[in-house]
Design a protein that fits this description.
With 151 residues, this protein is α+β, with helices and mostly antiparallel strands. 19% of the residues lie in helices and 40% in strands. Strands 1, 2, 3, 4, 5, 6 and 7 form a seven-stranded mixed beta sheet that branches.
Length: 151
């Protein structure tokens, strides 16, 4: 039987700062608290745009407008094939109320992202979409969907 899961990531921006959240991963690893962008699982029957708005609001209390898809990714673990879609979003509110599974949050500048996010996969995401101090998301124009092989 085929089993698929769709992950959604919201890269939320407000006034040239990005919302990152601190999540607990595993007490068996060296650094169990890690900073990342907001993410979650798309529900059955949801559109990706509706899912990212729901996930960001459920996890942080922040209402967003979905600006555009940035990239996709995928992997297989066991018998589950996971596909992910990352969206750039504009915050409509800045007051953050964290869900119980998150430990902390920060609004950080592009320059600060390099120091805050240490997770290898998240750092690759930052580089993939140009969220470094030398690039701007607007440099990519209107077609910004990156597709990776699932091999």
């Amino acid at each position: 039987m085929d089993k698929y899961r769709i992950l959604i990531k919201g890269i939320v921006r407000s006034h040239e700062k990005f919302l990152v959240v601190e999540k607990w991963y595993d007490d068996r690893i060296f650094d169990p608290y890690q900073w990342e962008f907001i993410n979650g699982v798309m529900g059955f029957g949801e559109t990706p745009e509706k899912a990212v708005r729901r996930i960001v609001e459920e996890k942080t209390g922040v209402s967003v407008l979905v600006d555009r898809p940035l990239y996709t990714w995928g992997f297989t673990a066991g018998e589950t094939c996971t596909v992910g879609i990352a969206f750039e979003c504009s915050a409509q509110t800045e007051t953050v109320v964290l869900a119980e599974d998150l430990n902390n949050y920060k609004w950080v500048s592009r320059e600060e992202l390099d120091n805050v996010i240490t997770n290898k996969a998240e750092r690759e995401d930052i580089e993939k979409v140009g969220l470094t101090s030398s690039f701007d998301l607007d440099d990519f124009g209107k077609v910004d969907l990156f597709i990776e092989s699932m091999d």
